[in-house]
Design goal:
With about 675 residues, the protein is an alpha+beta fold. It has helices at about 1-15, 170-175, 175-190, 195-200, 200-210, 215-245, 250-255, 255-275, 285-290, 295-315, 320-330, 335-355, 355-365, 370-395, 405-420, 445-460, 495-500, 515, 520-525, 535-545, 560-570, 570-580, 615-625, 655-670, and strands spanning about 30-35, 40-50, 55, 70-75, 80-90, 90-95, 100-105, 110-115, 125-135, 140-150, 530, 550-555, 585-590, 600-605, 610, 635. The strands form four sheets. Strands 3, 4, 6, 7, 9 and 10 form a six-stranded antiparallel β-sheet that branches. A four-stranded antiparallel β-sheet has the order 1-2-8-5, with no helix packed on it. The longest helix has 30 residues, at about 215-245.
């Protein structure tokens, strides 16, 4: 059993790439691209890839063609079509004995192109179906796939950075690569403060403590480790985005299977730090990789770097989301340079920390305090493991870790940690407490203060069992909607009642509410707010009440979203403005268990996939319409869907800045009337 646990975390590294969900491959894989040729003409391209061993028949040329494919636009769009469709590919022909006629087909790929007349000042949606015929062995098969092209209005080059910019990326595109590099570098430093990255530091300490016996070896290992992080993070993130689209990393962070694997990883790490066993890569792996004596060291370092990269995706994916959107829109150097800067910042502290492994060895041998640190981190790993399990539980709706259950487990963990720090709980590798001049064991002042902090935190969480907001950890605990017993009521008394009561009452949300009310943030329930979950419904309400629309791109498992809600939205002045002046729609990008109606489904060019779920629909809106893919992100629209704040607002828990943003949006909305 222990042997299985030792290898479980390393084995999970190879299972993780299988978690990115791609569409089931049909016999013919279709990809759609649009390109503006000039101010009046757009080229629509249909790229078809054929599975090996199959034949895809060409488009029909004459009525005598018996075997053919077809691209059919809906008849209402015929006025936009210019000329006929052209084909580009390795066309083959042979006589079909059954038909006694010559047929033409493709065996690998073909590109069909159609010119359409759409002025750069117009916005047009073109829909239709690709109907194809293939031959597999002696069997003839038919297939059909709907397509949708969104051709958006384009501004002249001199006004790309205006408030009406369609994709929200113009400001980024005008910046130099150096600006992107340093901005991404700063993002990497911020990512170091996230739980997923910070919690990997003890793994690194343990790893290099055991491997590096001399300063030269420590420096070499540090450089290999940092270089591996840079190479893996840059290439892996960039390639995943190119292949699967800009939402891939966010999907990985919210994928329930991925979160279960992260739960197992952190559980195994936590048990290991508590002293049950040591985690080592199987020796057979390194032996098979290279027979040289030094190769095992490199492979071990490489796998440690890979662990950091994969686990950190859960927290760092939203931070690098905007860079990855650039890759999906054809700007390859921008995200490549950005990912390089991000990974360098992420790797730098680990490299510096690993430069001194020999000193860490000396510190470890000097006393039992180092093992106490590892055990403390082991308790923290267990607490974080529950967070990942909670993420999967929320996505799947199992209800095994409702809010009160989650809080109960955290209370027990931090109580035990406090008892351990007081010296009342011992593990296998623990030393005895130091003794004073009278031969009695005693606590250091530092250890006592850590024990006080842990026990105080456990006591702080107790009211949460009955529904208290717990603002300090509101970003980590499950939403209040999962708690069965709540005795706290709405806290409207801290808001200006006269102004709130004077505002028109918002209608109750209808679409998706029965499912989504489970995920309503605590601040929404506690303050009696009304939020909607469907863009069209919220837009209709905003037009009816003549209020600006606030779009809240968020996620079920978005930690920073919960921080903004619990720390910023809950401020009395912020809450008053939100309730009085805005209609709010919360668009969750990670809801995958709400399917769209058949007539609502479509193909997304931005994501390179067919949109079938509510989460994918919201993600596509954020990427294609607003040019962002990180959460939280707030956009403000008037009743004609024009942006009131050009660039929107990302994660920034500055209350004064957020209040100024809300006031500016209202001011711009009023000025347009």
């Amino acid at each position: 059993m222990l042997r299985l646990l030792r290898n479980l975390s390393a084995l999970a590294l190879f299972l993780l790439p299988l978690l990115i969900q791609a569409q089931d491959k049909a016999p013919v894989s279709l990809r759609y691209v649009k390109q503006r040729i000039n101010d009046t003409t757009v080229m629509l391209s249909f790229h078809a890839s054929v599975k090996p061993g199959l034949r895809l028949y060409k488009l029909q040329q004459t009525k005598e063609d018996a075997l053919y494919s077809e691209i059919a636009f809906d008849s209402i769009y015929n006025k936009y079509l210019t000329g006929s469709i052209t084909e580009k590919g390795d066309l083959q022909s042979e006589k079909d004995a059954a038909l006694d006629a010559t047929v033409s087909f493709y065996t690998d790929s073909v590109e069909w192109q159609q010119l359409v007349t759409v002025r750069s000042t117009d916005s047009v949606v073109l829909k239709g179906n690709v109907r194809y015929m293939i031959k597999s062995g002696d069997e003839f098969l038919n297939g059909e796939e709907p397509f949708t092209f969104f051709i958006q209005r384009e501004k002249p080059a001199t006004t790309v950075a205006s408030a009406d910019s369609g994709d929200g990326l113009s400001n980024i595109k005008t910046q130099s690569l150096w600006w992107i590099f340093f901005a991404a570098f700063a993002g990497g430093l911020l990512a170091l403060l996230t739980p997923c990255v910070y919690s990997m530091i003890p793994v690194t300490v343990s790893f290099f403590t055991k491997r590096s016996q001399t300063r030269q070896e420590g420096i070499r290992n540090a450089l290999l480790y940092a270089g591996s992080i840079v190479v893996i993070f840059t290439l892996l993130g960039f390639l995943i985005t190119l292949i699967f689209g800009p939402a891939a990393l966010n999907n990985l962070a919210t994928n329930w299977i991925a979160n279960l694997i992260f739960f197992v990883l952190f559980l195994v790490f936590g048990i290991s730090f508590l002293g049950a066993f040591d985690i080592n890569l199987p020796s057979s792996w390194t032996n098979r990789t290279d027979s040289k004596a030094g190769s095992g060291s490199f492979m071990g370092i490489f796998f440690m770097a890979l662990t950091l990269v994969l686990v950190s995706f859960s927290c760092t994916g939203p931070i690098i989301g905007n860079l990855l959107v650039l890759a999906a829109k054809g700007s390859y150097m921008g995200p490549l340079v950005g990912m390089l800067g991000f990974s360098i910042a992420l790797a730098l502290p680990f490299a510096l920390f690993a430069f001194f492994p020999s000193k860490l060895n000396i510190l470890g041998k000097a006393g039992g305090w180092l093992n106490a640190v590892k055990v403390t981190l082991g308790f923290l790993e267990l607490a974080l493991a529950l967070k990942f399990l909670s993420n999967a539980d929320l996505v799947k709706g199992w209800r095994i870790l409702d809010r009160e259950v989650f809080i109960s487990l955290w209370i027990v963990i931090f109580l035990l940690l406090g008892i351990y720090l007081l010296g009342k709980l011992k593990f296998h590798h623990d030393d005895e407490l130091p003794k004073n001049d009278f031969g009695l064991p005693y606590l250091s002042v530092t250890r006592l203060f850590f024990a006080i902090a842990s026990l105080s935190f456990a006591v702080y969480m107790v009211p949460g069992l009955w529904g208290a907001p717990l603002k300090a950890i509101g970003a980590f605990v499950p939403p209040l909607g999962t708690q069965d017993f709540v005795i706290t009521g709405p806290q409207k008394h801290i808001i200006s009642e006269s102004k709130v009561l004077g505002a028109p009452k918002l209608p109750e949300p209808q679409k998706y509410y029965e499912k989504m009310k489970l995920y309503e943030p605590e601040v929404v329930r506690s303050y009696g707010m009304v939020t909607y979950f469907d863009y069209a419904e919220a837009l209709a309400i905003s037009r009816e009440l003549k209020k600006p629309l606030m779009i809240d791109f968020t996620g079920i498992n978005c930690v920073n979203c919960r921080k903004m809600e619990s720390q910023v939205w809950s401020d009395p002045e912020v809450m008053r403005r939100l309730k009085e002046n805005f209609v709010i729609v919360s668009l969750y990008v990670d809801v995958q268990d709400i399917d769209l109606q058949e007539n609502e489904r479509y193909y997304s060019e931005a994501l390179g996939m067919k949109i079938t779920t509510l989460g994918n629909k919201n993600t596509d809106m954020q990427v294609s319409k607003f040019g962002a893919n990180s959460q939280p992100y707030y956009f403000f629209l008037d009743n004609e869907e024009k942006r009131l704040i050009p660039d929107g607002y990302g994660y920034d828990p500055d209350i004064k800045k957020f209040i100024a943003l809300l006031d500016k949006a209202v001011e711009n909305f009023t000025a347009e009337k």
